[in-house]
Amino acid sequence: MSRIRAAFYDPTAARHDIPTYPWRFAPTDLLTRRQLAERGLRPGGQQVVAQVMWRSRRYNAPGGIRVAFLYDVRFALPKRPATPRQLAALAKANAARRTCPDCRKDAGYVLPRHLGICLICAYGPEAVEPMAA
Ligand SMILES: [Zn+2]
Description:
Layout: H1 3-8, E1 20-22, E2 30-31, H2 33-38, E3 41-42, E4 50-55, E5 65-72, E6 77-78, H3 84-98, H4 119-123, H5 125-128
Parallel strand pairs: 1-4
Antiparallel strand pairs: 2-5, 3-6, 4-5
The structure holds zinc ion (ZN).
Zinc ion binds near residues 117 and 120.
InterPro entries: QRL_CxxC_CxxC
């Protein structure tokens, strides 16, 4: 185990607030929220039981360290299917992400966050026309 990994290996929480593991060193019955979801499960009200820490330069991670919280799969509960109201709310939220605030049209794609407007408003119709012969 490398020095950095060793720094993150703290299964008894001697140095961290909760048991801590380096990337790929967590016990197999501890899963992230996303890993639970892949199995059709949700944390089910339980507290975070452990964390995974790893070095990363992505997302401007503070101190160059990223953290993922882990839940105990043994206490996880089946994921509840979304209700019609939740699905409607999601559809509405997704439509809002596609709707340009300048021209008020549904662009048909999620607006690029760095622009905040549709490509036509940003660059003009020429920029997004399909290649004309
Ligand atoms: Zn627009």
